[in-house]
Amino acid sequence: DLDECAGSPCKDHQYCLNTDGSFSCKACDASCVGCTGEGSEKCKTCAPGYVKEEEKCTDIDECNLPEKVCTKENQDCVNTSGSYKCVCSEGFEDKDGTCVQT
Hints:
This is CRE2A protein. By secondary structure, this protein is an all-beta fold.
């Protein structure tokens, strides 16, 4: 079997999987910018919103940072994969960018 992966035939956000007589390109984990294989432990570098912890790229919980990211009144932070979003607290709704009581 010829290792087609030796020539790096895949795109930057993919890794090469050598198979018998061929190869396939697989997508890197969402936490990676470039990778050498499957999973968050094979990242070349971590994507924005992720940090390398114990050899893996792990999501940064922006909602638990010392500096508050959702600063408007009656607003809660919701952590998402690689990011976060600010939502109005329970009992409040967004009216033109302000959280007002419902």
